[in-house]
What we know:
Blueprint: H1 2-22, H2 26-33, E1 46-47, E2 51-53, E3 57-62, E4 70-76, E5 79-83, E6 89-93, E7 102-110, E8 120-127, E9 139-147, E10 151-162, E11 165-168, H3 173-179, E12 184-187, E13 190-194, E14 199-210, E15 216-225, E16 232-241, H4 251-256, E17 271-272, H5 273-278, E18 282-288
Parallel strand pairs: 2-8
Antiparallel strand pairs: 1-3, 3-6, 4-7, 5-6, 7-8, 9-10, 9-18, 10-11, 11-13, 12-14, 13-14, 14-15, 15-16, 16-17, 16-18
Amino acid sequence: MKNKILIRLVSFMAIASMLVACEKTAIEKAQDAYDASMVVPVVLGINGPSAVLETFSHDYSVNYHRAGSVWSWSVEDAVISSVTPDTRGVTLLFDVLPASGKARLTVSETTAGGVKSPERVIEITVKHFCPLPLSGFEGTWTGIDGLEDEFEYDVTVTATLLDDSLLVDAIGSGIIGDYLGEEIIEGGTFMVAINPDGTLDVPEQFFLDTDKAEGYLIKGEGTWDNCGPRPTMTINYDIRFQDPGADSDDPDDSDDSGDDSGDDSETDKSRWIADEDFESVFSVTLTLGNGGDNGNGDDNGNGDDNGNGGDNGNGDDNGNGGDEGGNGNGG
Protein backbone atom coordinates (compact mmCIF):
# COMPACT_ATOMS: atom_id res chain seq x y z
CA MET A 1 0.00 0.00 0.00
CA LYS A 2 2.76 2.42 0.95
CA ASN A 3 4.60 1.62 -2.27
CA LYS A 4 1.53 2.48 -4.34
CA ILE A 5 1.15 5.82 -2.58
CA LEU A 6 4.82 6.61 -3.12
CA ILE A 7 4.60 5.69 -6.80
CA ARG A 8 1.54 7.91 -7.26
CA LEU A 9 3.27 10.80 -5.47
CA VAL A 10 6.38 10.53 -7.63
CA SER A 11 4.26 10.32 -10.77
CA PHE A 12 2.29 13.43 -9.73
CA MET A 13 5.49 15.40 -9.09
CA ALA A 14 6.91 14.33 -12.44
CA ILE A 15 3.78 15.47 -14.27
CA ALA A 16 3.77 18.78 -12.36
CA SER A 17 7.41 19.36 -13.25
CA MET A 18 6.66 18.73 -16.92
CA LEU A 19 3.81 21.23 -16.82
CA VAL A 20 6.02 23.88 -15.17
CA ALA A 21 8.78 23.22 -17.68
CA CYS A 22 6.36 23.75 -20.54
CA GLU A 23 5.23 27.14 -19.20
CA LYS A 24 7.09 30.10 -20.78
CA THR A 25 9.24 32.43 -18.75
CA ALA A 26 8.37 36.10 -18.30
CA ILE A 27 11.02 37.07 -20.85
CA GLU A 28 9.66 34.59 -23.40
CA LYS A 29 6.14 35.90 -22.85
CA ALA A 30 7.34 39.48 -23.36
CA GLN A 31 9.16 38.49 -26.54
CA ASP A 32 6.03 36.85 -27.90
CA ALA A 33 3.98 39.94 -27.07
CA TYR A 34 6.50 42.32 -28.70
CA ASP A 35 5.22 43.92 -31.90
CA ALA A 36 7.95 45.78 -33.79
CA SER A 37 5.35 47.69 -35.78
CA MET A 38 4.12 49.31 -32.56
CA VAL A 39 7.50 50.91 -31.77
CA VAL A 40 7.53 54.66 -32.49
CA PRO A 41 11.18 55.53 -33.16
CA VAL A 42 12.85 58.85 -32.43
CA VAL A 43 16.46 59.73 -33.23
CA LEU A 44 17.64 60.56 -29.73
CA GLY A 45 20.92 62.28 -30.56
CA ILE A 46 24.00 62.41 -32.77
CA ASN A 47 27.63 62.24 -31.67
CA GLY A 48 30.21 64.32 -33.56
CA PRO A 49 31.88 67.74 -33.62
CA SER A 50 29.66 70.79 -34.01
CA ALA A 51 32.44 72.87 -35.61
CA VAL A 52 34.95 71.66 -38.22
CA LEU A 53 37.45 72.93 -40.76
CA GLU A 54 36.92 72.56 -44.48
CA THR A 55 38.95 69.85 -46.29
CA PHE A 56 38.88 67.51 -43.26
CA SER A 57 36.79 64.42 -42.46
CA HIS A 58 34.92 63.66 -39.22
CA ASP A 59 32.82 60.79 -37.88
CA TYR A 60 29.18 61.10 -36.77
CA SER A 61 26.91 58.47 -35.23
CA VAL A 62 23.61 58.10 -33.41
CA ASN A 63 24.12 57.79 -29.66
CA TYR A 64 21.91 54.77 -29.02
CA HIS A 65 21.16 51.21 -30.24
CA ARG A 66 17.90 49.55 -31.29
CA ALA A 67 17.89 45.94 -32.46
CA GLY A 68 16.73 45.52 -36.03
CA SER A 69 16.72 49.22 -36.90
CA VAL A 70 18.53 50.84 -39.80
CA TRP A 71 19.46 54.51 -40.13
CA SER A 72 19.40 56.66 -43.27
CA TRP A 73 21.76 59.61 -43.68
CA SER A 74 22.00 62.62 -45.98
CA VAL A 75 24.03 65.82 -45.89
CA GLU A 76 24.10 69.25 -47.51
CA ASP A 77 27.39 71.07 -48.24
CA ALA A 78 29.51 68.01 -47.40
CA VAL A 79 30.06 64.48 -48.71
CA ILE A 80 29.28 61.14 -47.06
CA SER A 81 32.52 59.21 -47.52
CA SER A 82 31.41 55.99 -45.83
CA VAL A 83 28.65 54.42 -43.73
CA THR A 84 29.27 51.91 -40.94
CA PRO A 85 28.04 48.33 -41.54
CA ASP A 86 25.27 48.74 -38.94
CA THR A 87 24.31 52.12 -40.52
CA ARG A 88 24.58 53.83 -37.12
CA GLY A 89 27.42 56.11 -38.26
CA VAL A 90 28.92 57.96 -41.20
CA THR A 91 32.16 59.69 -42.13
CA LEU A 92 31.72 63.16 -43.62
CA LEU A 93 34.21 65.01 -45.82
CA PHE A 94 33.79 68.76 -45.58
CA ASP A 95 35.11 69.53 -49.04
CA VAL A 96 33.53 72.96 -49.51
CA LEU A 97 32.93 76.08 -47.46
CA PRO A 98 29.12 76.51 -47.29
CA ALA A 99 27.75 79.90 -48.25
CA SER A 100 25.84 79.94 -44.97
CA GLY A 101 28.87 78.73 -43.05
CA LYS A 102 27.01 75.59 -41.95
CA ALA A 103 26.54 72.07 -43.30
CA ARG A 104 23.29 70.21 -42.52
CA LEU A 105 23.33 66.54 -41.52
CA THR A 106 20.04 64.61 -41.57
CA VAL A 107 19.33 61.14 -40.16
CA SER A 108 16.21 59.02 -39.69
CA GLU A 109 15.61 55.58 -38.21
CA THR A 110 13.47 52.75 -39.60
CA THR A 111 12.61 50.01 -37.13
CA ALA A 112 12.41 46.26 -37.75
CA GLY A 113 8.65 46.74 -38.05
CA GLY A 114 9.09 49.23 -40.90
CA VAL A 115 8.17 52.33 -38.89
CA LYS A 116 10.19 55.42 -39.84
CA SER A 117 11.12 58.17 -37.38
CA PRO A 118 10.92 61.90 -38.01
CA GLU A 119 14.15 63.28 -39.46
CA ARG A 120 16.72 64.65 -37.04
CA VAL A 121 18.77 67.56 -38.45
CA ILE A 122 21.91 69.08 -36.98
CA GLU A 123 23.90 72.04 -38.26
CA ILE A 124 27.69 71.84 -38.35
CA THR A 125 29.73 75.03 -38.50
CA VAL A 126 32.38 74.79 -41.24
CA LYS A 127 35.28 77.18 -40.91
CA HIS A 128 37.72 78.19 -43.61
CA PHE A 129 41.04 76.39 -43.30
CA CYS A 130 44.27 78.33 -43.69
CA PRO A 131 47.25 75.97 -43.37
CA LEU A 132 50.38 76.94 -41.49
CA PRO A 133 53.66 74.99 -41.73
CA LEU A 134 55.19 73.84 -38.46
CA SER A 135 58.00 76.32 -38.92
CA GLY A 136 55.38 79.09 -38.87
CA PHE A 137 54.65 78.37 -35.22
CA GLU A 138 58.14 79.28 -34.08
CA GLY A 139 58.64 82.71 -32.61
CA THR A 140 57.31 84.98 -29.90
CA TRP A 141 53.62 84.87 -29.01
CA THR A 142 51.85 87.34 -26.74
CA GLY A 143 48.48 87.20 -25.06
CA ILE A 144 46.49 86.64 -21.89
CA ASP A 145 46.88 83.65 -19.56
CA GLY A 146 44.84 82.55 -16.55
CA LEU A 147 41.21 82.09 -15.62
CA GLU A 148 38.58 84.62 -16.67
CA ASP A 149 36.89 86.45 -13.80
CA GLU A 150 39.49 85.07 -11.36
CA PHE A 151 43.00 86.10 -12.41
CA GLU A 152 44.56 86.94 -15.77
CA TYR A 153 48.15 87.76 -16.69
CA ASP A 154 49.89 89.27 -19.69
CA VAL A 155 52.23 86.65 -21.06
CA THR A 156 55.01 86.50 -23.64
CA VAL A 157 55.69 82.98 -24.86
CA THR A 158 58.69 81.74 -26.81
CA ALA A 159 57.86 78.77 -29.04
CA THR A 160 60.58 76.52 -30.45
CA LEU A 161 60.12 73.63 -32.86
CA LEU A 162 61.47 70.41 -31.39
CA ASP A 163 60.92 66.92 -32.87
CA ASP A 164 57.79 67.96 -34.81
CA SER A 165 56.23 69.47 -31.69
CA LEU A 166 56.32 72.91 -30.15
CA LEU A 167 58.23 73.64 -26.96
CA VAL A 168 56.64 76.62 -25.16
CA ASP A 169 57.53 78.51 -22.01
CA ALA A 170 55.98 81.09 -19.64
CA ILE A 171 52.44 79.67 -19.75
CA GLY A 172 51.14 79.05 -16.24
CA SER A 173 53.93 80.99 -14.56
CA GLY A 174 51.55 83.64 -13.26
CA ILE A 175 49.30 81.00 -11.75
CA ILE A 176 52.24 79.35 -9.99
CA GLY A 177 53.71 82.60 -8.72
CA ASP A 178 50.55 84.55 -7.90
CA TYR A 179 47.75 82.11 -7.11
CA LEU A 180 49.95 79.45 -5.47
CA GLY A 181 52.61 81.83 -4.20
CA GLU A 182 55.48 79.58 -5.25
CA GLU A 183 58.72 80.12 -7.15
CA ILE A 184 59.62 78.00 -10.17
CA ILE A 185 63.08 76.48 -9.68
CA GLU A 186 63.11 73.94 -12.52
CA GLY A 187 61.14 73.39 -15.72
CA GLY A 188 58.31 75.67 -16.71
CA THR A 189 58.22 74.52 -20.33
CA PHE A 190 56.09 71.86 -22.01
CA MET A 191 55.49 70.25 -25.40
CA VAL A 192 52.49 71.00 -27.62
CA ALA A 193 51.53 68.68 -30.50
CA ILE A 194 50.30 70.67 -33.50
CA ASN A 195 47.64 68.84 -35.54
CA PRO A 196 47.02 69.75 -39.20
CA ASP A 197 43.26 70.11 -38.66
CA GLY A 198 43.56 73.26 -36.55
CA THR A 199 43.70 71.51 -33.20
CA LEU A 200 46.53 70.96 -30.76
CA ASP A 201 47.19 68.62 -27.84
CA VAL A 202 49.16 68.91 -24.63
CA PRO A 203 49.74 65.32 -23.49
CA GLU A 204 50.05 64.88 -19.74
CA GLN A 205 53.70 65.52 -18.89
CA PHE A 206 56.11 66.89 -16.32
CA PHE A 207 55.76 70.64 -16.03
CA LEU A 208 57.91 72.09 -13.25
CA ASP A 209 59.27 72.04 -9.71
CA THR A 210 58.87 74.89 -7.24
CA ASP A 211 60.43 75.87 -3.96
CA LYS A 212 57.45 74.25 -2.20
CA ALA A 213 56.71 71.11 -4.24
CA GLU A 214 58.12 68.92 -7.00
CA GLY A 215 56.59 67.14 -9.95
CA TYR A 216 53.86 69.47 -11.15
CA LEU A 217 52.14 68.04 -14.25
CA ILE A 218 50.31 69.72 -17.11
CA LYS A 219 47.81 68.56 -19.73
CA GLY A 220 45.44 70.24 -22.15
CA GLU A 221 44.14 70.79 -25.64
CA GLY A 222 43.32 73.68 -27.90
CA THR A 223 43.01 75.16 -31.36
CA TRP A 224 45.04 77.25 -33.76
CA ASP A 225 44.03 79.51 -36.64
CA ASN A 226 45.88 81.18 -39.49
CA CYS A 227 43.06 82.92 -41.32
CA GLY A 228 43.49 86.32 -39.66
CA PRO A 229 46.25 88.91 -39.98
CA ARG A 230 48.45 86.72 -37.77
CA PRO A 231 48.38 83.16 -36.48
CA THR A 232 46.59 82.66 -33.19
CA MET A 233 46.21 79.75 -30.81
CA THR A 234 44.27 78.99 -27.68
CA ILE A 235 45.38 76.37 -25.15
CA ASN A 236 43.00 75.16 -22.45
CA TYR A 237 44.99 73.39 -19.79
CA ASP A 238 45.20 72.28 -16.19
CA ILE A 239 48.11 71.96 -13.75
CA ARG A 240 48.40 69.12 -11.26
CA PHE A 241 49.73 69.95 -7.83
CA GLN A 242 51.72 67.08 -6.34
CA ASP A 243 51.35 67.15 -2.55
CA PRO A 244 54.90 66.88 -1.12
CA GLY A 245 53.49 65.27 2.02
CA ALA A 246 51.61 62.53 0.15
CA ASP A 247 54.59 60.15 0.00
CA SER A 248 55.50 59.58 3.62
CA ASP A 249 58.20 57.09 2.59
CA ASP A 250 60.28 59.84 1.02
CA PRO A 251 62.14 61.79 3.71
CA ASP A 252 63.14 64.47 1.22
CA ASP A 253 59.48 65.23 0.53
CA SER A 254 58.69 65.56 4.21
CA ASP A 255 61.70 67.82 4.74
CA ASP A 256 60.64 70.09 1.89
CA SER A 257 57.02 70.33 2.97
CA GLY A 258 57.79 72.70 5.82
CA ASP A 259 55.12 73.53 8.36
CA ASP A 260 52.32 73.89 5.80
CA SER A 261 51.28 70.26 6.09
CA GLY A 262 50.72 70.47 9.86
CA ASP A 263 48.05 68.10 11.10
CA ASP A 264 46.89 67.49 7.51
CA SER A 265 49.96 65.38 6.63
CA GLU A 266 47.76 62.29 6.26
CA THR A 267 45.54 63.99 3.68
CA ASP A 268 46.77 63.88 0.08
CA LYS A 269 46.15 67.36 -1.34
CA SER A 270 47.34 66.45 -4.86
CA ARG A 271 44.83 67.74 -7.39
CA TRP A 272 44.23 69.21 -10.84
CA ILE A 273 44.04 72.82 -9.72
CA ALA A 274 41.62 74.38 -12.23
CA ASP A 275 39.26 71.43 -12.15
CA GLU A 276 39.07 70.95 -8.40
CA ASP A 277 39.50 74.55 -7.21
CA PHE A 278 37.35 76.24 -9.87
CA GLU A 279 35.56 73.45 -11.82
CA SER A 280 37.06 74.94 -14.95
CA VAL A 281 40.26 75.03 -17.01
CA PHE A 282 43.01 77.58 -17.35
CA SER A 283 43.23 79.19 -20.78
CA VAL A 284 45.85 81.13 -22.70
CA THR A 285 45.05 82.97 -25.93
CA LEU A 286 48.07 83.93 -27.99
CA THR A 287 48.92 85.85 -31.16
CA LEU A 288 52.16 85.33 -33.02
CA GLY A 289 54.33 88.44 -32.94
CA ASN A 290 57.03 87.28 -35.31
CA GLY A 291 57.63 84.52 -37.79
CA GLY A 292 58.48 84.08 -41.42
CA ASP A 293 56.40 81.33 -43.01
CA ASN A 294 52.83 82.28 -42.20
CA GLY A 295 52.34 84.46 -45.29
CA ASN A 296 50.16 86.91 -43.39
CA GLY A 297 52.62 89.69 -42.58
CA ASP A 298 55.48 91.58 -44.17
CA ASP A 299 58.89 90.23 -45.22
CA ASN A 300 59.45 88.77 -41.77
CA GLY A 301 55.84 87.75 -41.22
CA ASN A 302 55.23 90.52 -38.75
CA GLY A 303 54.61 94.04 -39.98
CA ASP A 304 51.27 95.81 -40.32
CA ASP A 305 49.71 99.18 -39.74
CA ASN A 306 48.72 98.50 -36.15
CA GLY A 307 51.99 99.33 -34.51
CA ASN A 308 53.09 95.73 -34.40
CA GLY A 309 56.00 95.77 -36.77
CA GLY A 310 58.17 97.84 -39.03
CA ASP A 311 61.29 97.13 -40.99
CA ASN A 312 62.68 95.06 -38.14
CA GLY A 313 59.32 93.61 -37.09
CA ASN A 314 59.17 95.46 -33.80
CA GLY A 315 59.54 99.26 -33.78
CA ASP A 316 57.04 101.82 -35.03
CA ASP A 317 55.71 105.26 -34.20
CA ASN A 318 53.10 104.10 -31.71
CA GLY A 319 55.27 103.70 -28.67
CA ASN A 320 55.96 100.01 -29.12
CA GLY A 321 59.65 100.19 -29.81
CA GLY A 322 62.48 102.52 -30.66
CA ASP A 323 65.41 102.60 -33.00
CA GLU A 324 66.74 99.43 -31.42
CA GLY A 325 63.65 97.49 -32.40
CA GLY A 326 62.58 96.86 -28.82
CA ASN A 327 59.18 95.79 -27.61
CA GLY A 328 59.12 98.08 -24.58
CA ASN A 329 57.10 101.15 -23.86
CA GLY A 330 59.60 103.71 -25.11
CA GLY A 331 59.07 106.02 -28.06
